[in-house]
Amino acid sequence: MFELTQDHEEFRGLVREFAQGEVAPHVEKWDMDAHFPTELVPKMGELGLFGLNAPEEFGGAGTEHGGFTYTCLAIEELGRVDQSIGITLSAGVGLGINPILSYGTQEQKERWLPDLLAGKALAGFGLTEPDAGSDAAASKTRARLEDGEWVVSGSKAFITNSGTDITSVVTVTAKTGEDENGKPEISAVMIPAGTEGFVVEPAYRKLGWHISDTHGLTFENCRVPEDHLLGERGEGFKQFLKTLDDGRIAISALALGCAQRMLEECTAYGQERTAFGKPIAVNQGVSFQISDLAVMVEAARLLTYKAAWLKDEQEAGRRSVAEVKQAAAIAKLYSTEAAVTSTRIATQIFGGNGFMEEYPVARFYRDSKILEIGEGTSEVQRMVIARGLGLPAR
Length: 394
Hints:
Layout: H1 6-23, H2 27-33, H3 40-46, H4 68-81, H5 83-103, H6 106-117, E1 122-126, E2 142-146, E3 149-160, E4 167-178, E5 184-192, E6 198-200, E7 214-225, E8 229-230, H7 236-272, E9 274-275, E10 278-279, H8 284-315, H9 321-350, H10 360-368, H11 378-388
Parallel strand pairs: 1-4
Antiparallel strand pairs: 2-3, 3-7, 4-5, 5-8, 6-7, 9-10
GO molecular function, one term: flavin adenine dinucleotide binding
Domain Acyl-CoA dehydrogenase/oxidase C-terminal: 234-389
Domain Acyl-CoA dehydrogenase/oxidase N-terminal: 5-120
């Protein structure tokens, strides 16, 4: 059965120290200014956080010193301090690096991975479109081969890490034709930042994740060499579904960090805040809610790290892809809904103070809702779980 090792816990302590020293003192101002701290990314790279899933050949930690569980620990600890910083790592690894690592040619890996793993660059993942979210097959972005180049036209929406000063490449899904059955052929194409016709739209005004970099992207007859195809032609949709399966575990870890922080904040506030001459935690209306938070955190932690352990086991050939897919959906569904509930409870316990930006619960309240949407909505997770149980599809 899975369990965290002493090495895992020591690594957790290392990331927690980093988060408290390099992130916590600045997040209130970064959030207020909607500032993406480009200078923080190389520091995360120096700590090895972007390379925990990657081989030493390209600058990663290798199998002996890394793995998916380590990545989830890092995301949880960063997310415990600030959700935007947590998603920067989660998207940087899961959506930026992993597709190249999993499906790239040796030449593509040698070109892009060293800087990405070192935190000198970031990569984006372009799947969602203005009219194609969960229904990714409805993508309208097109790519056609012309004189040895892919000509890409279309748009993408809500793309993380796509417009920073150090964004080096964005991989996008596009229709490249039709298969033998007349169904859309979807492929993945890598588009380097700065390519002519690659337009990064202004940053969104978001409810939360103010520190995270998020943009819409437009491609206007954007030309890249034919060898910028990532993986096999026509396999892009399958590749990105697999990428999302892994990313759901990472989002579960991010949600866990949120719920853990709310538990800590409420436990401390319940003892410090007094009403009628006594700490408010003496009231069962408060203490029972904090107890419920503790249960949710414990359950989310077990589901998250079981899924992460299964992913590591699957990489070693000891577990199936189907097991990981099901565990990822369960963990993501429970943990993200628990995170949203935890911020609502925390805001209620803090009362008027919970509505004030001077208290971190307000920021976490704003940041949490997107957890139930990104990487597949809660409704999509329930569909995945139902299919995993063998229930008939619609």
